Structure formats: C-alpha cells, structure tokens
Amino acid sequence: MARPAEVAKTSPALETSTPEKPAPLGGMGGPLGWADDRLGIAALGKKNLRKVFPDHWSFLLGEIALYSFIVLLLTGIFLTIWFRPSMAEVEYAGSYQLLKGVHMSEAMASTLDISFDVRGGLLVRQIHHWAALLFVAAAMAHLLRVFFTGAFRKPREINWLIGVGLLSLATIAGFTGYSLPDDLLSGTGLRFVDGLIRSIPLIGTWAEFFVFGGEFPGHVVISRLYMAHILLIPGILLGLISAHLALIVYHKHTQYPGPGRTEKNVVGYPLFPVYMAKAGGFFFVVFGVLVLMGGLMQINPIWKYGPYNPAQVTAGSQPDWYMGWVEGAVRIMPGWESHIGSTTWSWNVFLPAVALMGLFFTLLGVWPFVEAWITGDKREHHILDRPRNAATRTALGVAGMTCYAMFWISGGNDILATMFHVSLNAVTYFMRVAVFVAPVIAFIITKRICLSLQRADAEKVLHGSESGIIVRSPEGGYSEAHVPITADEAFSLTQHERAEIAVPTPNLDDRGVKTKGKRVSGLRARLAQWFLGDEIAPPTRAEIEAARHRTPTSPDLPEVEADEQRELADRH
Amino acid sequence: MRFLTRRRRSKAAKPLAILMALFAMGLLYSVASPATQSSAETASPEQIARGKAIFEQTCSSCHGLNGEGTSEGPTLIGVGSMAVDFQMGTGRMPMARPEAQAPAKPTDYSAEEIAAVAAYVQAEFGGGPQVPTSDQYSADGMTSEKLARGGELFKTNCSACHNIEGTGGALPNGKYAPSLEKTSDKHIYEAMRTGPQQMPVFAKGTLTDEDTREIIGYLQTLHAQPEQGGLHLGGLGPVGEGFWAWVLGVGGLSLVAVWLAKKGARAR
C-alpha cells in the first residue's frame, strides 16, 4: 500500500554514516588510531604486513641494489649542497697544496673543496662512489639470478623489461656522475663518449654538437650532465624501482622448488615481523659496508688526476667497471673505416661501442619472449627452475657472461700487460679471438655439466645417494652401498617436468586439406629441439617403483657397516 | 778504569751507553757506506783505465770494443757519462738477458766503478751530457705553486706513459714505462735528459732545469704525502676499484645474505 510521501525531517544523504564494520584497530586510541582514522593504514597493513616471502640468499641480491640506491640518494643530497656544476674557470686556492694556483673549472674546484675543506666531505664522496659501483654490480648479479632461475617467465616479462631498463639507466646514472667532477679521468671518459656519439653514421657530428652545445668540451656539458644526474635519471629510476617492487607484490615472489611448494602458494615467512627485521637489518649492513669502504678505501683520487685538460692524459685511463666492457670492445677492434662520398663511417668505434651496447640491451630485453616462442610455453611460472634443469638456457647465460668477461678483460689490457709482464699486443690479439671462441667453449662445457647434473639427479632418485661405504663381497668384488634419499629430497629432484618439444605442423593434414590455425614452423621446431632436446627427463613414478624393486637395499647392510667399522677399529 | 766501574750503576749510564753505541754505529756507517753521488770532477788516467777494464769485461760484448755498437746493442758514441750513470746506476745495464726492455734491478757495481766506466765512455767515445750536480735536480725548498706547476708539466709530458701517480704503464710489444715511485731525483733527471730505451729525450730547450726540478719535486711530494681517503688500491684507477666493488661489495654482502637467509624465525 502506497503511503503518502512525507517530507523527510532529515535527509539520509546528510546523515553521518557510521562504519558498518568495527575499525580494524578496534577504535584504538593513541597515535596509531589517530593515523588509522585518517589514512586507513590498518586495513592496508592487515593485507600487506602478513604477506609471505620465501627465504633464499639469492633473493637478497636485488635488495643490495635497492639499499645502495637509497645510500646514493642520501649521500647525493649531501654532495649537492656544495657541488657547483659550472665550467667557469677559477684559480684553485683550497687546501690541497699540489694544485695550488692551477686553473680549473668550478666543478672541479668545488669537488676538491668537498674532498678537503668540507667536514666529512671526502668520506661522503667516497661512499657515494662505492655505492654507485655496488648499485650497478648488485643489479647485474640480481639480473643473473633472475635469468638463470627462469624468473623472467610469464607473468614476469614486464618486470624483466623494467629491470633491463633499470640496469641501463643505472649505468647512465653512473657515467654522468663519473663525468661531473671534471677531473682528468672524467674528461677523458667524456672524450670517449664524444667519439662514440660522433661515430654514429651521418648524424654523429650533429648529435655531438647538440649534446655538447658546440665543439667538445664546450661550456654547457657539466650543467647538462648535472641535471640528468641529480634530477632526470634518479627520478625515472625511482619511478621504475617503485613499479618493479609493486609488481613483485602483485605477482608474489617466486620460490625455489621444494616439498609443499606449488605454483599456487608461496612458502616462507611473513613480511612482519620476520622480513621487516631481516630486510631492515640488511639495509644497515649494506650501509655499514659502504661506509667502511668509503672510509678505508680510496676511490677516484681526483686531486691526483687534476683538472681536465684536453692536452693531458694518463696511462691506465679506464671507465668505472660497468663501462669497462665497451672500452674493451673498442680497444680490441681493428681500425676499420670507410669513406662514402663526403662521409666517414667509423666502424672501429661504431660497431664495438654503439652497436654492441644496443645489441646487449636488445638481447636482454627480448630474451623472455624469444624463449617463450621457442619452447611454446605459455603457462604461468612461480616455481623457479634449478639452473641445471634448463641446460641450454644456463649454457647460453654462461656463454654471455664469458663474452662479457672477455670484453671486460680487454678493457684492462694495459693493466694486465704491466701486472703480468706480458706483451700488450699479445693480450690484444688473444682477446680478438677469445671474445668469439671462449663463449662457444663455455657454452659446450656448461651444457655438458648441466646434463651430467641432471643425470646425477635421476640416478640419485632411482638408486639413492652414495653412502661412502665400500662393501667387499665374499667373491672379492667391491661395491658402494647406496642410501635411499628422503621423500622430500626425491620430490625436489623430480618436480620439474620435461617440456614438450614442438614438432612442425605439416602443410596438409592426412586428408590432404591445408591445415588451419596455429602452426609450428620448421625453424621453431629445430630451435625447440636444440633448446630442449637434450634434457634428461626426470624419473617417472613407474621407473622409481621399478628401481626400488630391482635394487632392494640390503637389510643386513647396517650390520656389514657395523662389522666393518669394528674390524677397522680393531686393526688400529 | 775505576772511574767507569764506580759510575756504572749511575742512572745516566744506560742512556749514555745507548747514545755512545748509536754514535759509534753512525760513524761506522758513514765510513763503510758507499758515496751516494759520483763527483763531477775531471777524471784521472787511473780512473779511466779502471773504467776501460770494466767496460771491456762487461759491456763490450754487445756495445763493441770501441763502443761502435753491434747487432746486440746500440752505439755509445756521443752518449756521455750521464747515460752511463743512469743505465748502470739503476741496474739496467749490464742486461741479464736480451728482452724487450732492460728492467731496473739492484746493481752490483759500486759508485766508484760506475763513475769509472762513465769517465771512460765520456773520454773515449766522444763527450755527451755529463752526470748532473745536485743543484740541477734537487727539488728542495719549492713553493706550493711551483710544485703545482710541476704537476701540470708532469701531466702534460709524462703521465700518458707513466700513469698519473707515476706507477707505470704498458707500451706495445712487451715494452713498458716503469714505475717512478722508487726512482731517485738524479735518475729521473738523467732519464729525461738522455731518453733511455723507449723514452723520448726531453732536452733543455723543451724542459729547462727549473721545469725538471718542479716535476721531480711534484713527484716526490706526491709519493711522500699521506694517502687521503684510505687505503691506496695500487694506483690502478677504476680497474682496481671495480674489482674491489665486486669482491668486497657483492661478494661480502652475499655472504651476509647467506647468513641472513639461514636465520629462520622461531616458527612453530
């Protein structure tokens, strides 16, 4: 029955709404309750504080990079207070006697002031530099861990791409910082990059004038680099790191295989309190190690290098380690150059520097997609591969590391020549061959080791692990008794599955009709065979049962063992 | 003697005895130690004869009996006593074996013997630059500005081969620029003037004696000053630094990570 409408005395829309659920903190007073009322942190915390992370030392490599980055931000802020990013010429009048009266840029003079006249300045400068080296090193170690365990597979491809972006930005951040003090070494490094830009065909000279605001070194490059170093790159880094971490939370962390661990769970400890303590503690360890290195180990003594002067150079001019491999590639490259029309094509710089760097980051970026295409594996993976179980990938990774290392060694060819009293030319010629041959050798050796480890695992599951006890039979034969492994261990060794190898789709099906739908090309099938064909399949349930029946562990084995020991004890 | 016996328990006896012993040792050392500088006085015929004997025994097989040079060694005509003083004083000559470059090593020849050979080469093979006097190379009493100028000269002329800290560097085909960390003032001066082995000659028209003294002063001050900022990692620049960042940074912190990951919570 319709009732006549009444004029509401109070509008529901204007009424104070009361929460239906009690507040998560139970109407708790105090500062926490105050904050919760305004920010809703309790609900957020309830969801995220108990988030579970798995435990493994290799998962902390990325944390080292993260904490180094925080240290870089903290020390960097300190340095910006005194650093003057100007190329204006001044006469040095600070405390360091051996540069007294030398003309230099304001950037160099202010860096010297930070080192000698600002309290704690040298310590903070050195911490900043060590942290920069560690930041890139830890990022690279983290990348290797992710690569070898297959953590880049679906659904984490985008996070892998973000990581590759972070690594390239980290090297640029490091390089711009290396160039800022305007000492002899950083000037030499800038000259190197200048040559690198110029070697780009056709637009090189134009690009050089654009970057340096005219002829090298110009008057603007330090202030431009400064802007990139303290604002642009750290800003992008900060954003990408946040996205990187947010995606870890969204995807949940990967875990190594083990009993009770599936693609649908994460076995570990909750963020609060376990990882709060561990990660928080680890931050202070990283900070502490960096402070010790900054305090005890001299790094980049710019007062010895002196201000940059294009007429000067020093033996042993090298970039920081992460650019060392590019330096090495340029050092061992033959001097190829061609002239087409009025243009010069400097292959001797363009190929080893610009093209090689592009190739490196491109290969890293596309790898997850290439691997997924080869294997045809479109499933989600939250359980990591043991590196041995992906033999070809692991071998490719080691080959890549070997190639990188060869370029790296070439970058220090002069240091090697003087340290080990060998000919500089011999080192260079050797390296020209080694960059191509060493990766192939590394690939073959690594793949063989991985496959052997796979066989050893299968053997262990089927016949147990070696006991170390040699038994002599009454006939005089010797054999080693095997001890059956635990169910947990057997699970860890057999949980991975042998991937199916794609076979090429025939053009016509058996009725002579052209096949439709998704096809597997011959190339893809060959690649899949190469990538997966040699893997040793983990033992099946039937095989394990059969093996157990065939080689029953002798019930009197312990007796034998005890007898043997007694006998041995008597003899001694 | 009763005087000594009576006073031997005196409080001053021990310090005095040490003082006397030190004095005696110092006296003995000053008598026994070889003279550090060869004098530039005119050579006596006896000295030249002695130098000739040593030359014929140890140098002539490669440099020729008349210093004309052979396929094994260069001519010594016109090199002068300064080159001899440098090559023999730093132990580079005589060479132990033929190799890309003669390394510096401790020498078995006394200062007198080296001076004798130098005098012989100077007198017989046509004169050249002579052994310098200490006022030519001594860098005593230089102002900071002069030392800083020496640093600029060093970085312009020397560091491309010898490294910014004078720790040396590589040259093609097994040759190298040696470290200058332990080289004496005189030998640095002589090397610049005579251009031994791979080194170019820096004649007085290029770098005056004053410039040379500034460079020597800069180098010696650089090597004598305390290391700011902690342990000196070999003066190898970023290669050494990168090595330690990986070994101590990533390596050391990975060990901590292993320890941290092992530490479980007190679960259950």
What does this structure look like?
The complex is a heterodimer of chains A (572) and B (268). With 572 residues, chain A is mainly alpha-helical. Chain A folds into two domains: 49-309, Cytochrome Bc1 Complex, Chain C (Up-down Bundle), CATH 1.20.810; 386-499 and 535-572, no CATH class. Helices cover 59% and strands 5% of the residues of chain A. Chain A contains 20 helices and eight strands. Chain A has helices at residues 30-39, 41-48, 61-82, 106-116, 121-148, 157-179, 184-198, 204-212, 221-251, 271-296, 302-305, 321-332, 347-375, 391-411, 413-419, 424-463, 487-494, 522-532, 541-550, 557-571, and strands at 52-53, 89-91, 103-105, 269-270, 338-340, 343-345, 465-472, 478-483. A two-stranded antiparallel sheet of chain A has the order 1-4. In chain A, β7 and β8 (478-483) form a beta hairpin. Chain B has 268 residues and is mainly alpha-helical. In chain B, 53% of the residues lie in helices and 1% in strands. Chain B has helices at 2-7, 13-32, 45-58, 60-63, 80-89, 111-124, 134-137, 144-157, 159-162, 185-194, 209-224, 238-262, and strands at residues 169-170, 176-177. A two-stranded antiparallel sheet of chain B has the order 1-2. In chain B, β1 (169-170) and β2 (176-177) form a beta hairpin. In chain B, α3 crosses α6 and α8 (144-157) packs across α11 (209-224). Chain B starts with a helix and ends in a 6-residue tail after the last helix. At the A-B interface, α3, α5, α10, α11 and α12 of A face α8, α9, β1, β2 and α11 of B.
